[in-house]
Specification:
With 123 residues, this protein is α+β, with helices and mostly antiparallel strands. It has four helices and nine strands. The protein has a single domain (13-116), classed as Beta Barrel (OB fold (Dihydrolipoamide Acetyltransferase, E2P)), CATH 2.40.50.
Length: 123
C-alpha cells in the first residue's frame, strides 16, 4: 500500500495541498506520479493569474500521456516551482517535497479530502 502523508489535504484528481504556511502549496501525489510515469513537461499557471477550485490550471506531460492539472483552491498564484519546470523528473523523484508545483494565495477552498479519505480512494 502506498503511503499518503497525513499532514496534507488531497483532491479526487490526485493533487495534494499544504496550507500550513498561509498560502497553499500544491503538487501531485505519489500515486499520480507513478500512474503518469516519467514526467517530461510541466505547464503551470502564470504568477499573478487566478485559479478556480476544480478547474484545469495546467498540464503534465509524461512518456505515457498528457494529464490536466486541477486547482484544489480558488485564489491567486503567487509562486511557481521553476526547478520542477526545468527538471520535471523532480516530480517523480520527490512529489511531496522538491517536486511541488505552485503556491496560491487562498480565496476559498475546493472540495478536499483528508489523508484517510484519499488513501481509501486509491486503495
Amino acid at each position: 500500500m502506498m503511503s499518503v502523508p497525513t499532514n496534507l489535504n488531497y483532491t479526487a484528481e490526485h493533487e495534494w495541498l499544504d496550507t500550513t504556511s498561509g498560502t497553499a502549496t500544491v503538487g501531485i501525489t505519489l500515486y499520480a506520479a507513478d500512474a503518469l510515469g516519467d514526467v517530461v513537461f510541466v505547464k503551470l499557471p502564470d504568477i499573478g493569474s487566478s485559479v478556480t477550485a476544480g478547474q484545469v490550471c495546467g498540464e503534465l506531460e509524461s512518456t505515457k500521456s498528457l494529464s490536466d492539472l486541477y486547482a484544489p483552491v480558488t485564489g491567486k498564484v503567487v509562486e511557481t516551482n521553476l526547478a520542477a519546470v526545468e527538471n520535471p523528473a523532480m516530480i517523480n523523484q520527490d512529489p511531496y517535497g522538491a517536486g511541488w508545483l505552485f503556491k496560491v494565495e487562498i480565496a476559498s477552498l475546493g472540495s478536499l479530502l483528508t489523508a484517510q479519505e484519499y488513501q481509501a480512494q486509491i486503495s
